[in-house]
Write a structure and sequence with these properties.
Radius of gyration: 31 Å
Largest sheet: 7 strands, mixed
Distance between the termini: 73 Å
Helix content: 40-55%
Order of helices and strands: HHEEHEEEHEEHEEEEHEHHHHHHHHH
Number of strands: 12
Number of helices: 15
Shape: elongated
Structural class: alpha+beta
Length: 495
Amino acid sequence: MWNIKFVFKSLKKSFSITFINILGFSLGLCVIFFLTRYLLNEFSYNSFHQDKERIYRVAVKSYQENNFTDETFVYTSEVGKSLMADFPDVYQYTTITYPKTDIFYFDNRPVKIEEYLYASEAFFDFFTFHLKEGNPQNVLKEPFSLVVTEQLSEKLFGIVDPVGKQLVFNGDLYTVTGVAENPPANSDIRFNMLVSLSTRHRQKNVYMGWMGGNQYIHFIKLIPETDLALLYEKMPDPFMWKYINKDYDPYGIKDELYLQPISEIHLQYNPDSASLRRSMLVFSVIAVLLLAVVIINFINLFIADSTKRLKTMGIIKIHGADKSRLIRYLLTEIAVLIMASFLLAFSLVKIFHPYFEQLAGKTIPSFSENGLIYSIVIIAVILVVTLLAAFFPAVLISSVQPAKIIKNEMASGRSGKTLKNGLVIFQFFVSIMLIISALTIENQNRFMQHFNPSYNKENIVVLPLQSMELRQKSNMMKQELLKVSGIEVACCVSE
């Protein structure tokens, strides 16, 4: 217990330096926690699905005269169904559409619903998205069936049970058959509402089949221990030739299928994956450099304040304390500082979490939302690195000879000065580089905000045509808009 008493007595004598050390260390840890949480969140995408190691998204590479032309994971509607029919290794499949936005009507009131998908009936059996109400086996089986998320249900229906309620879209009645939990923040499949894929066969001007429109995304689940190499041998040529390449062949066009593991989709195969990887690399480097800076700053401040405790160390040594006991005492003092810094850092993280999400532009789960193990891993890594770095000042201070301490002959050797000077130089170098980087990014953002696009964007209005009927009458709408005073030019742009 004498260690703890001596620790608090020593820290009390150096309150100002102690406060600065704790504050600087905790601010650095706060930023590192945010960066770490952001990075781990990006790595955790789609990890919540059961059997994730067996789930793949079907993608297509296109060739013209044997030259690569395009790559996409959005294709025609029958791929998943045909793969399951032709390959015994395909245990299950599900199909969704690309996210859509349309105007639905509830009680004759228009409601704009964003990010809704058409999904095949196996969707909830295939993926680990949980239903609050409804049977996952048949909730999307019948045409014109809807599953709304909890968030959309509350927006549309309030606290009333939504099952059985009806929405109107393009003159058709859609019935709510289930309520799903909001998709996790680390899911690449985002939706506010799901519509049964069988509905597409009942809608006007919708082309299904292998030669239909490219707006469908297919996922397959393989049986355990499937030989992917053998599956790939059969998939590109015989399979695609059978269904579509034989019709493309006269034009020199060929499509090839390949599989994207769902656990790698977010960082490898999405349209923004390349830029995301670059951003994560930058943030990783910043986190490592910032961690090095705060540790070096902690070491330097601790050593700089060590003069006041050196005589105490010398007297203790003279009275028979060995080096290991002094190291334990100093590590106890360092541990108290670190624990205080961690507590303050966690408080700052909790306070600034909403602002961090706003800066990141997405929902970032908190430590509590990700589970105890998730939090322990982050804390353990930073704590181990910090304690390893903090071991240096403890060894340095405890190694000073007692006679020199009492006689005030405590000049450090050339190697000690070189190391301390090197740490300071490195600290200032990294700090300057981070400041320059921050100023550069700020200038780029300011440039983008004040960039002159050569037209007055304040006078341009975009009217999305949400329904097929409106799209078919776009030219008529254009002519009517031109009759309105104040409108100089109108044009129609198709997707």
